[in-house]
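Thought: the user wants the 3D structure for the chain below. I'll pass the sequence to the structure tool as-is, report back what it returns, then summarize two notable features.
Action: structure_tool
Action Input:
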Amino acid sequence: MIHCNSVLVSCNSCTNSTASCISGCTSLVGLLPRQAIACGETFGGVNDVKTGAQVQRLMQYSVRKWGTLLRIEKLLQDRIMDHLTFLYGAESAGPLWRRLQNILRDFQRRNPRQAQAPATGQLSQSDAILITYGDQFQEPEVPPLQTLHQVLTQTLGYPVSGVHILPFFPYSSDDGFSVIDYTQVNPDFGTWDDVERLGRDFRLMFDAVVNHVSRRSQWFQRFLAGDLDYVDWFISVEPGTDLSMVVRPRALPLLHSYPSASGEKLVWTTFSEDQVDLNYAHPDVLLTMIRILLFYVEKGAQMIRLDAIAYLWKKIGTPCIHLPEAHHVVKLLRAVLDAVAPGVLLITETNVPHKENISYFGDSLPGASGTDEAQMVYQFPLAPLVMHSILSGNARAISQWAAGLETPSARATFFNFTASHDGVGVMPARGLLSGAEIQGLVDAALAHGGQVSHKTNADGSRSVYELNISYFDALSDPSADEPLALQVQRFICSQAMMLALAGVPGIYVHSLLGSRSWHQGVAQTSRNRTINRQKFDRATLERELADPTSLRYQVFSAYIRLLRARAAEPAFHPFGEQRVLCLHNDAIFALLRTSPDGETRVLCLHNVSGQTQQMQLQPAELDLAPGTWRDLLTAEEYPLARDGVTLHLAPYAVRWLLKPPSQTPFFQPLCSREGKHVRRTLTQQDARA
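Observation:
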């Protein structure tokens, strides 16, 4: 082995090593392929190697003779080794790293350009991600993935920049989240060619359902058959084991019994009998999953969603949620992607209280602008907080919460959403809303025709886990005698609040297209979550979108106006500044967004109530520059004099007021110790000082 502080050339075929510190080398780590250096074969002897240039020439020779070098910065190698050591111990870390090196080298050989992608993933204000099933849009004799592409490009006219395709692999239950084979496209949906076609027009997010696999998978079947290669892939538990500390996300048994070649086995199943948890304490599982994630990158994934990642690592005698090992697995995956595909973003899905949720950003990286875990985390408190604001007509709770939001670096942000294929989780709202306020959400969901799902607590009791209802119906009672236009405006106000917040918006397809709850689906499946998972017939959808009086037309057209306005203004950049404004009116949710370069500002006003609200804007009090502010949605202009202006907002009105860059005052950003963003207008004298 020849190494220095920056260059490492290692031999995989033997345990012999020769070391020498070489000056002048580059910040490159190169790993020679297996058998590249036979025992006793060196680069002309260690004493003959004097300079970094010589090392590079010899490495280039090895590429010609033996194949592609693995090129990884030493800091990344150290990160990977640290995580492998934490997870599996110092003795195992070295051999595991050598196996992982082969995986990464093979990926780099096939995908040399991936390592050159920008590390930030090039996020901007134009990014919005549609959350949809692969078979969401259907028509006769056409694979649904092809129909999805046609609907997005032709019917809807490229409404978003990216698409999160919910699991599109062969599955046995849970609408895709019980995966039989991670490497195949469900033949009922289409082919990998169809997925890659979508990737040529949209940024793709793939689901990595890493916590569990279908009981019908080959992995689990080989485990049950007693295959020695798979005996440690799943977690068998002896009867009578005390598992009382384990946190349960469902009101279902933690263990299920399965017949095996050696008799009945009690096996760990966090979510259902058909979803069997993988054992990441066995390193073969982790290395296999890394191969799969890199395969997804090759197939066009620019974002990877880590499903149910909080429950990944199991250790009897602990809660088995948010364990340090689970975090280290995420950190390891992030380091691997940083090494060979830095443009791919990790997103963690953890339906838990806010403090635990944001822990998956990880820690700041020394000497870098990012963190060492996810670049984005799901913003789970947002859905219940927006729902509470609209139903109560009071934005105090969401304003207080948003005022304290912060990310650990300038290269990490939130994935904001109000609806998804799951329900509205209430756990993330605990501590942000009172018990009575959360019960108010439950009561409203039931009154509006929704369902409620529960989880089992450690003491055996049950508590509400999520509300199952379409988000449109969550905000408007379907049986109420209200004008459709008012219901649409109420809903659009909720979506504008989400779009205005710093981060990347995730838009569930049923929100974009104004769907009501699907009660017939619940009757068919007996599953609460089906209420928000109806599939579309393309012809029917297109007829509804062509009818200006329909719910779908009114919601979609209003939503598109919001998305276009947002995409056009740098103030909505995911890494732009956000400040919550106090307007002394709890019915108004007010944000001041500023572009990363400080050049543009947008004042976002949302009336969450059903009454017209009068408000006074005072430039000096709110740090707003006098001048003419223009509404991005209506083009109406609002002259803001130095002594202020009075505005009237109709029920559920949205105003996004742009201050033209030429009128933006000179200012500099400051941050308080609590992390709340503050901006201070400076006089020219302050600036010179």
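Final Answer: Structure generated. Residues 1-67, 663-689 have pLDDT under 50 and may be disordered. The longest strand covers residues 462-468.
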